[in-house]
Each structure stands twice: as structure tokens, then as C-alpha cells.
Specification:
- With about 160 residues, the protein is mainly alpha-helical.
- The protein is built from seven helices and two strands.
- The protein has helices spanning about 20-30, 50-60, 80-95, 95-105, 110, 120, 135-155, and strands at about 65-70, 155-160.
- The protein has a two-stranded parallel sheet.
- Helix 1 crosses helix 2 (about 50-60).
- The longest helix is centred in the last third of the chain and has 22 residues, at about 135-155.
């Protein structure tokens, strides 16, 4: 199975994006000072958006943050919420059970609906009785947002979704 962490920057020099990287680093500094940020890298295919995002993740990790990396699959057949499943699955593998329980809280049962590997780490989760799809989706979104917020309390978090279009 593939590893869903951001790829390390390549050995080749990263040039021509000084202004963009300065802006991204400033956004990162602002975010770790308590002002969460959303940044979008947009442009034509092949101009270096993924590489720039990888460089930001590398910078963030060098400065004590954890980097979550998900990507959108352009072809048919991708599971729902795929850009979130990948990094959460990777995170589950690397943290201990107590930390995972604290960070996911009661929302763990909702997250387990899209990341069933969570049930191996937290086998005592009790599945919810089915409810209306809109309610289930809202609970899932709220549970993931709460988990990400909690996970960022112990270590700053950069969450990248590549190829979101």
C-alpha cells in the first residue's frame, strides 16, 4: 500500500518561487501563532504547485509541524472523502491509542465510517445506528474538523490537499 505522507523535496534545486514561498512561510508563521489559515495554490498544470506545496510541508516539518498530505483522484472509483482518508490513515498508524482517543473523542465512530482501520486501533468503538445521510455527513465533517483541531493542539498541523479541482 502506498505511503500517504508528503514526498520529500527532490534533490534538485527549488528556484523561481521565492515570493510564493515567502508568502507561504508567513502564512505558516501566522497559523502557528494561533491564527489558522487557508491557502490555495492555483495555476495551470505543470507550473510547480505540488512541488511548492511539498517545499512548504518540508519547511513546516523542519519547524516542528506535522504535515498531512491528501490528494484527489481524478478517475472514477475513488472512495468518498479520499483526500482525508489517506492522511488520517497514516496518522492512525503513527500515534498511540491514548493520544488518538483524546484527539478524536466521540467523533472517532464517525471517522471510522470512512477510515475503517481506526477500528483496529480503537476496537471498542460502537457503531451508530443509521441516521439520515445529511445528519451523518454533518457529523462526519464536524468530527474530522474537531479531530484536526485537537491534533493541532499538541503539534502544529499543515494539511495539504493536492489536485483539488
Amino acid at each position: 500500500m502506498a505511503d500517504y505522507r508528503p514526498l520529500q523535496p527532490t534533490a534538485s534545486a527549488f528556484v523561481g518561487r521565492d515570493r510564493e514561498m515567502a508568502e507561504l512561510r508567513a502564512a505558516f508563521v501566522e497559523a502557528i501563532s494561533g491564527h489558522g489559515r487557508l491557502v490555495m495554490l492555483a495555476g495551470e498544470p505543470g507550473i510547480g504547485k505540488t512541488r511548492t506545496a511539498r517545499e512548504l510541508c518540508s519547511y513546516a516539518e523542519q519547524h516542528g509541524a506535522q504535515a498531512f498530505w491528501g490528494w484527489c483522484y481524478e478517475q472514477e472509483g475513488a472512495p468518498p472523502y479520499w483526500p482525508f482518508v489517506q492522511p488520517i490513515r497514516n496518522y492512525i498508524d503513527k500515534v498511540d491509542t491514548d493520544q488518538l482517543e483524546r484527539e478524536m473523542g466521540l467523533g472517532a465512530v464517525d471517522i471510522a465510517d470512512i477510515v475503517p482501520e481506526l477500528l483496529k486501533k480503537l476496537p471498542d468503538l460502537v457503531q451508530r445506528v443509521d441516521s439520515a445521510p445529511e445528519q451523518s455527513r454533518f457529523r462526519l465533517f464536524d468530527s474530522v474538523a474537531t479531530f484536526l483541531t485537537n491534533a493541532s493542539q499538541t503539534q502544529p498541523l499543515v494539511f495539504t490537499i493536492d489536485d483539488l479541482h
